[in-house]
Amino acid sequence: MYSTKIRILNSELGVLQKQILRSAAVSSTSIKVEDATVPLKSLKDIPGPPSLPIIGPLHNFLPGGMFYNVKGIELNKKMNEMYGPIVRLDSMLGMNLIVALYDAESTAQVFRGENWMPVRPGFPSLEYYRKNYKHRNEESSKPTGLITDHLEPWKEFRSAMNPVLMQPKTIRLYTNAIDQVAQDMISRMKSTRDENNMLRGQFDIEMNLWALESIAVVALGTRLNCFDPNLAEDSPARRLIHRVNDFFNYAEALDYKPSLWKYISTPTLKKAIETYEDLENLTKYFIQKAMEELKKNGGKSNDEKGVLEKLLEINEEFAYIMAADMLFAGVDTTATTMMGTLYLLAKNPDKQQKLREEVMSKSDKKPYMRACIKESMRLMPVISGNFRKTTKDYNILGYHIPKGTYVVSMHHNMSLNEENFPRATEFIPERWIVDKDDPLYHGNAHPFVYAPFGFGVRMCIGRRIAELEVESFLARIVENFKVEWFGPPPKVVQAALNYVRGPFNYVFKDL
Predict the structure, then answer these.
(1) What angle, 0 to 180 degrees and rounded to 10, lies between the N-to-C axes of helices 72-83 and 2-19?
(2) Rounded mean pLDDT, 35-46
(3) For residue 203, is pLDDT > 80?
């Protein structure tokens, strides 16, 4: 009954919202409709799953609840269908109240309004470690990194990093090194296939090894030798591999599920802090090794200096932090993108062959390659949406969103909406390269529907590195293998990221 009333209310407001409310000014406190003033509704009036004292809406996700066993994109889709373009999810057991936006123009209103020094919640447990635990006996206002800083500290850190990590010619210095990692991974794949042309190891772990080896070339200035079958378990490289994986497991448990760690020091928090500390020390170990190599090799011209060398010249502490952040942000994300792209190409052999022909042509420009990757990130994105914590009040779709509210834009759901992308559930890379008068042309969609790397000043600083890694590896795969898939689609589990889970039914046949 409650849900029915909400759906009726949303449908009655739909026309009014689209025609009038989108034009409401951020600073307004009411909306004028045909000479009548309609007061804004409050945050509590936003429809969403019903809540109970203390546990909030948690009961809706437990056995017997209406969202029990409904997960990921299906959960987001169901809430959108039940409650409309704006949904409130009340706080529960340490998690903040969240307002979810399924409307692109509303997303634009918030993201453009927050684009000077946006607050983007990410990993609260890591933020606690860097800002509180490490400095528990001292006062510190030093920047702690792009993942954990906000406002002025974040701006200071980002301003120092941009000239290095956003410079195309600096990233191009890694073209050969990244490609060598890709070729080494191809050799590993060929040597570890079974009689059915499937990799013997767990596919997600294999992709993580490739991604870690690739990002380490940039972040640490060295190869970790992740592909070495004789790499000792107690070696720094192997420990780093394990710790990066542990990081995401603890982040999922502490930051993306109900938890009491913000109120009491839980056993999981203590283990997470040990992981964060060990990962930080391992990062320093590899950077110090790289610094020794840089001294041995003598000075280079500015055009020949890589990312780590340039970061060390700016600020040694910043270099340590940025290297760790690149490891946090550049392993699972890149690996997941590759797994999704390979699955979609395997299920669409005609698209795979078209890509192969482009790669084999050896042309410097690869528009279809980029189109395939963009389409993969639309259908199987690494994250379902982007977060902001508002720094001022907003009027969104007739509701007053106060300062300090956590808002998430549901880009994945909007990307799968037929109103935004015709044949939305199909893998059609051509939509990214067709002429503007083609009905499939991606530019017909609202620009805030699709944002795999975020928006504005908080756009992913590692975008160019990630694109180079994926393009290099994908090119090597399609020129060596015909990729196939059998059985049902892979499971995608929504947690800290949208993880692709097994069974991994990829088949790699020699061409």
Answers:
(1) 80
(2) 81
(3) yes
Which residue's structure tokens are 């689609």?
489
Radius of gyration of the chain (CA): 24
pTM, 2 dp: 0.88
CB under 8 A, 24+ apart: contacts of 376-379: 376/337, 376/340, 376/341, 376/344, 376/427, 377/337, 377/340, 377/452, 378/415, 378/421, 378/450, 378/452, 379/340, 379/344, 379/415, 379/416, 379/425, 379/427
Could you tell me if 248 and 496 are in contact, meaning their C-beta atoms sit under 8 angstroms apart? yes
Q: Name the burial class of residue 250, with classes exposed (0-12), middle (13-18) and buried (19+) by CB atoms within 10 angstroms of its CB.
A: buried
Percent of the chain with pLDDT over 70: 91
Supply 452's token pair: 């795999």
Overall fold of domain 142-346+454-462+473-510: Cytochrome p450 (1.10.630)
**Residue 502 and residue 490 in contact, taking contact as beta carbons nearer than 8 Å:** yes
Model confidence band, residue 26 (pLDDT cutoffs 50, 70, 90): very low
| pLDDT at residue 36 in the model | 46
d(CA 306, CA 285): 18
Sequence-distant (≥ 6) Cβ neighbours of residue 159 within 8 angstroms: none
**What separation in angstroms does the CA of 7 have from each of 3, 68, 408?**
6, 20, 21
* Structure tokens that stand for 291 in this block: 């610094």
DSSP calls for 330-379: HSHHHHHHHHHHHHHHHH-HHHHHHHHHHHHTT-S--HHHHHHHHHHHHH
- Determine the residue type at 289: K
User: Alpha-carbon distance 333 to 341, whole Å?
Assistant: 12
Spatial distance between the Cα atoms of 364 and 482, rounded to a whole number of angstroms: 22
pLDDT given at position 24:
34
The amino acid sitting at 41 is K
Q: How confident is the model at residue 255 (pLDDT cuts 50, 70, 90)?
A: confident
Least confident among 50-54, 235-239, 346-350, 427-431: 235-239
- 460 a known binding residue? yes
Q: What is the pLDDT of residue 194?
A: 95
Contacts of 410 (CB under 8 A, 6+ apart): 76, 80, 100, 101, 102, 384, 385
Cis bond upstream, residue 349 (ω within 30): no
Please write the tens of the pLDDT for every residue from 85-111: 999 999 987 788 999 999 999 999 999
Asked if residues 398 and 21 have their Cβ atoms less than 8 Å apart, the reply is yes
Q: Would you give the DSSP letter of residue 96?
A: P
Average pLDDT of span 490-508: 89
The tokens of 252 are what?
Answer: 């999922």
407: β partners = 99, 388
